[in-house]
């Protein structure tokens, strides 16, 4: 009474209470502690720390009420609050909750078209999404109005990409990133009943949460019934994954109210002190067990029945305690609602049953169509239900006031009647949906028929028509990139097909099964894929009709990392297509065939190739698709087969015309030509492949082609410039849903930063981001390539001990267990490189032997990593030769020098001139040509400086210092050591600079005592070197120590 004294002291508005009865809209269910927790989580999130909140508890405990109370707080504090709700009976409608929430947002901005905020968001969305906004506009209609241009319609848009679902995830993330980054108000997204969320929505939500940025004002709230979520539910995995990526998780659980809380609420409702309502609150508590929903409905029911009423004489609320106590009530709220509905007129009950068949809500358009088509009386009875507090009407939507009311109404029909109702409603809606092109209405109609099942459909019409409707709906769902819903439609369509359907309805059966196979691959349902594909292969009338399914099956093997099996399957199919390939080819024969093909292509101008005729043969087009898949697979399991595949693709293109995958053929062919020493010739075909991407409109292969062509461009253009193409490659790959090539573009970009000599802190940050990106996408194969390089970067900086996953022993163990030759090659090269850089001769020699043992010698495609591998392998080879005098190492060094000179002559002097000079200097040094070595060291340092390779300028200075020290010129040696130290510091290689600092002092002191070689000194322990340096005093410090030693 002391908390809110005015409640009990003010006079009761008798006339209002008498007319309106008991009102609950101002009742607070005393969730102050939980509300405070949510407020704190919201404040943390919008202050820059990404966070989400999950409100859980049994049905009827006030979860949605609490979330909406937070929403009022958000709006009152100038935030934006978006709401969406999942529905158990509408899971076949893709992204209903997310789309509804963001559609409201775009609608609000559209109405503010004159405001600066609306224009700013629209401009950024246009720049970020471009015409790819089409894929989102299919889900968010108001987006088109906001962007103020007609988004291009694309028939079969799911065919222009590798994985349309991944593309949509990426676009959703970009959409959310734009609207939160350019908005001056925080954005809160509330999704209700996430236990019923479809898999596609959960995947998008996971991507949005995992890619949250620290400075993004975004807060997510989800409500769920925890008693309907099992331990393996996708939403729980999403929350756990978000937490792993640094997103804070606040969990709020709501239980039923205790007796004290019920007493306080009754006291507030009736404006009477708690002592006076104790008897009533005790009865209500024991009958409802403190469930807020049950409690509120019971209080309203008591008021309607006159057991709780206003007394004009006593000027207060009074109740009939004895009758309330003796009243028999159901054990739970659902049964209570069943009893309440049963008391309503038959027309009202029937209207509630109709509405319940559509889930928690239904658009008024649906109600009007059903009322007209089936001669049902719905609108007026629903108004009566509205007056009873069972349904509400928001804008043009009828919705139950609570899920439990819908469940109660739905449960009042027996199963057979429900099936007939669903089927009749579906058939009533499907015609208008097709006529109007209303996709949402189509999904609703077909879903209703599917809920009815084949038996009910037979009563109304034939099942073949239903299969056709499911085919149409599935295709529409694929266009919206919801492959889970699409698979459900196709699966239902197959279920409606009757016996002998392959004979009687062959085309329909083939299309349903093919598309179901495609969807099952995308959603990772390999069991269903196997069953469906076996059916097609068994029943298809000819080999050509099996090709699409065989392609999907072959792709599934590749996705499951069964690369060798995938290659064998592909080779077998190509043989049946009449395009068989030899399993092996000698190098001489391969070189001869490449030269012959090059001669043919040199006779065709670029313009003629760009305007070349198009391939029209279905068999040849399919053969090209299989060959394109084989190109990448060969790189991993059989590189020697790769030139055969490339030459076959070029031959088919020249003979039968360009196909959508021909750009891949020209990109790989450019790599073959460049690898044979004709770098400029290879670059011609790389340029051609990139232009053909647009000419052939092949966005689904853009990520792969851009990666391949950039590899060649790194030999012709400055590395610092060419590397930037990979950012575009990643973006285009993501827009095509091609995660594999998006990863490779991003990884190659980061590695390119290292070899291009960018400051190591910048490179470290780039690797941190790509590491997170790979973990988010679950792309662990690429991750192992990245970890080996990342370990080298952190070792140079001096931070390798801060990352347990980069522990040398653990990483070695994991890479060896993977038994991936490419991963081993990268791992041993990086280990060799790191030992070389840190002056550990014995380890360097050990890793060099393993690297040359595991390195793939049969590569046909010229790649940018060959540059670093060739350069550092040459330097290592010369150092080992000078120490061991083993001619094998000298031969290796000269081989690498020869390759570097060719690249310097034919390619970019910017990239290769200083490398060629430095290898030549090491070669002359090893041969004892002192004067020639001096000239080459000087040229290498000058060239590296001019071309902005600070990393290799530092290295050239260090190797020149080693050379001068070994040849007795200590003053020049010290000069170069000092310069090397300064450049390593400038590069950000603190650990390397520290190691060199310590090593310099040891070498100069030791050089006064003995003729110890720099190489043997390099293997000495440098762990005690200082962490910080006085660069300006380095040279003076060493000379002082030398003079002291001489005395």
Q: Calculate Rg over CA atoms.
A: 36 Å
Largest sheet: 5 strands, parallel
Helix content: 55-70%
Mean pLDDT figure: 84
Which helices and strands occur, and which strands form pairs?
Blueprint: H1 5-9, H2 14-20, H3 32-46, E1 51-56, H4 63-76, E2 80-85, H5 96-111, H6 116-129, H7 133-137, H8 141-147, H9 164-181, E3 187-192, H10 199-210, E4 218-224, H11 234-244, E5 248-253, H12 259-270, H13 278-288, H14 292-304, E6 308-311, E7 316-319, H15 321-326, H16 333-342, H17 346-356, E8 361-363, H18 364-373, H19 379-387, E9 391-394, E10 397-400, H20 403-411, H21 415-436, H22 439-460, H23 463-479, H24 483-496, H25 501-504, H26 506-522, H27 526-539, H28 543-559, H29 563-576, H30 587-602, H31 606-610, H32 618-637, H33 642-656, H34 662-675, H35 679-695, H36 702-713, H37 719-722, H38 725-735, H39 739-755, H40 760-777, H41 780-797, H42 808-818, H43 821-837, H44 841-854, H45 865-884, H46 887-906, H47 909-927, H48 930-946, H49 950-966, H50 970-987, H51 990-1006, H52 1014-1018, H53 1034-1046
Parallel strand pairs: 1-4, 1-5, 2-3, 3-4
Antiparallel strand pairs: 6-7, 8-10, 9-10
Walkthrough of the structure:
The chain is mainly alpha-helical and 1047 residues long. It is 68% helix and 5% strand. It has 53 helices and ten strands. The strands form three sheets. A five-stranded parallel sheet has the order 2-3-4-1-5, with helices on both faces. Helix 23 packs antiparallel against helix 24 and helix 35 runs antiparallel to helix 36. The longest helix has 22 residues. It is globular.
């Amino acid at each position: 009474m002391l908390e809110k004294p005015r409640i009990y002291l003010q006079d009761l508005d008798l006339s209002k209470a008498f007319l309106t009865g008991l009102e609950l809209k101002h009742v607070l269910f005393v969730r102050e502690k939980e509300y405070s927790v949510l407020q704190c989580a919201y404040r943390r999130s919008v202050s820059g720390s990404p966070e989400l909140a999950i409100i859980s508890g049994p049905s009827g405990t006030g979860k949605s009420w609490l979330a909406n109370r937070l929403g009022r707080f958000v709006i009152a504090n100038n935030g934006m609050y978006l709401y969406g709700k999942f529905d158990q009976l509408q899971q076949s409608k893709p992204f209903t909750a997310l789309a509804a929430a963001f559609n409201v947002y775009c609608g609000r901005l559209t109405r503010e078209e004159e405001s600066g905020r609306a224009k700013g968001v629209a401009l950024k969305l246009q720049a970020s999404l471009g015409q790819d906004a089409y894929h989102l506009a299919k889900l968010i209609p108001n987006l088109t109005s906001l962007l103020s241009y007609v988004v291009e319609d694309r028939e079969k848009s799911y065919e222009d990409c590798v994985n349309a679902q991944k593309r949509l995830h990426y676009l959703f993330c970009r959409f959310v990133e734009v609207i939160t980054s350019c908005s001056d108000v925080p954005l809160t997204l509330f999704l209700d009943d996430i236990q019923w969320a479809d898999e596609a929505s959960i995947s998008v939500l996971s991507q949005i949460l995992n890619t949250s940025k620290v400075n993004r004002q975004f807060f997510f709230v989800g409500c769920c019934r925890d008693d309907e979520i099992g331990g393996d539910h996708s939403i729980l995995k999403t929350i756990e994954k978000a937490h792993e990526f640094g997103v804070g998780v606040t969990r709020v659980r709501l239980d039923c109210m205790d007796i004290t809380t019920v007493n306080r609420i009754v006291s507030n409702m009736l404006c009477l002190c708690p002592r006076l309502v104790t008897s009533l609150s005790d009865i209500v508590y024991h009958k409802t067990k403190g469930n807020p929903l049950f409690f509120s409905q019971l209080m309203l029911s008591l008021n309607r029945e006159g057991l709780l009423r206003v007394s004009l004489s006593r000027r207060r609320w009074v109740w009939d305690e004895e009758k309330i106590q003796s009243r028999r009530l159901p054990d739970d709220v659902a049964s209570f609602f069943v009893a309440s509905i049963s008391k309503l007129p038959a027309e009202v009950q029937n209207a509630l049953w109709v509405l319940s068949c559509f889930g928690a809500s239904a658009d008024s358009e649906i109600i009007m169509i059903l009322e007209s088509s089936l001669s049902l009386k719905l609108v007026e009875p629903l108004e009566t239900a509205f007056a009873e507090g069972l349904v509400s009407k928001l804008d043009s939507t009828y919705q139950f006031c609570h899920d439990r009311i819908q469940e109660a109404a739905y449960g009042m029909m027996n199963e057979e009647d429900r099936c007939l109702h669903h089927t009749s409603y579906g058939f009533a809606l499907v015609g208008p949906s097709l006529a109007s092109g209303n996709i949402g209405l189509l999904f609703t109609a077909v879903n209703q028929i599917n809920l009815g099942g084949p038996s009910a459909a037979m009563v109304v019409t034939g099942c073949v028509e239903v299969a056709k409707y499911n085919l149409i709906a599935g295709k529409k769902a694929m266009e919206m990139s919801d492959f889970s819903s699409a698979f459900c439609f196709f699966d239902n369509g197959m279920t409606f097909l009757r016996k002998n359907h392959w004979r009687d309805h062959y085309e329909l059966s083939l299309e349903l099964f093919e598309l179901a196979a495609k969807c099952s691959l995308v959603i990772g349902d390999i069991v269903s894929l196997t069953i469906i594909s076996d059916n097609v292969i068994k029943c298809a009338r000819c080999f050509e009709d099996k090709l699409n399914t065989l392609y999907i099956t072959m792709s599934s093997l590749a996705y499951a990392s069964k690369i060798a099996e995938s290659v064998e399957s592909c080779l077998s199919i190509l043989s049946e297509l009449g395009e068989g390939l030899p399993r092996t080819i000698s190098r001489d024969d391969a070189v001869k065939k490449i030269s012959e093909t090059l001669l043919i292509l040199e006779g065709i101008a670029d313009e003629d190739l760009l305007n070349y005729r198009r391939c029209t043969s279905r068999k040849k087009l399919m053969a090209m698709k299989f060959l394109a898949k084989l190109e990448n697979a060969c790189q991993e399991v059989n590189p020697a087969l790769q030139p055969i595949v490339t030459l076959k693709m070029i031959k088919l293109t020249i003979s039968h015309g360009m196909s959508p995958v021909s750009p891949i053929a020209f990109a790989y062919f450019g790599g073959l030509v460049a690898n044979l020493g004709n770098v400029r010739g290879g670059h011609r075909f790389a340029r051609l492949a990139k232009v053909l991407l647009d000419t052939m409109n092949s966005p689904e292969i853009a990520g792969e082609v851009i990666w391949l062509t950039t590899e060649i461009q790194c030999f012709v253009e400055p590395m610092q410039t060419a590397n930037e193409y990979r950012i575009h490659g990643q973006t285009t790959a993501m827009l095509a849903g091609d995660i594999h090539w998006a990863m490779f573009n991003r990884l190659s970009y980061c590695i390119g930063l290292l070899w291009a000599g960018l400051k190591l802190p910048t490179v470290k940050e780039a690797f941190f981001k790509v590491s997170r990106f790979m973990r988010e996408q679950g792309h662990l194969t690429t991750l192992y390539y990245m970890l080996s390089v990342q370990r080298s970067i952190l070792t140079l900086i001096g931070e390798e001990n801060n990352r347990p996953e980069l522990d040398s022993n653990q990483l070695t163990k994991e890479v060896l267990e993977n038994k991936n030759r490419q991963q081993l090659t990268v791992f041993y090269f990086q280990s060799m490189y790191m030992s070389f850089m840190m002056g550990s001769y014995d380890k360097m020699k050990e890793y060099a032997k393993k690297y040359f043992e595991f390195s793939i010698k049969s590569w046909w495609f010229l790649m940018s990593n060959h540059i670093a591998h060739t350069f550092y392998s040459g330097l290592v080879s010369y150092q080992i030769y000078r120490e061991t005098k083993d001619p094998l190492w000298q031969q290796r060094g000269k081989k690498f020098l020869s390759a570097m000179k060719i690249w310097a002559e034919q390619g970019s002097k910017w990239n290769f001139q200083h490398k060629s000079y430095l290898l030549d200097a090491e070669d002359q040094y090893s041969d004892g040509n002192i004067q020639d070595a001096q000239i080459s060291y000087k040229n290498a340092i000058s060239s590296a400086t001019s071309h902005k390779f600070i990393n290799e300028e530092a290295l050239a200075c260090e190797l020149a210092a080693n050379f001068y020290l070994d040849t007795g010129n200590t003053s020049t040696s010290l000069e170069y050591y000092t310069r090397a130290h300064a450049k390593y510091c400038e590069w950000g290689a603190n650990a390397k600079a520290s190691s060199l600092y310590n090593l310099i002092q040891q070498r100069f002191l030791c050089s006064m005592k003995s003729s110890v070689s720099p190489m043997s000194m390099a293997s000495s322990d440098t762990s005690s070197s200082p962490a910080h340096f006085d660069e300006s005093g380095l040279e003076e410090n060493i000379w002082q120590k030398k003079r002291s030693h001489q005395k």
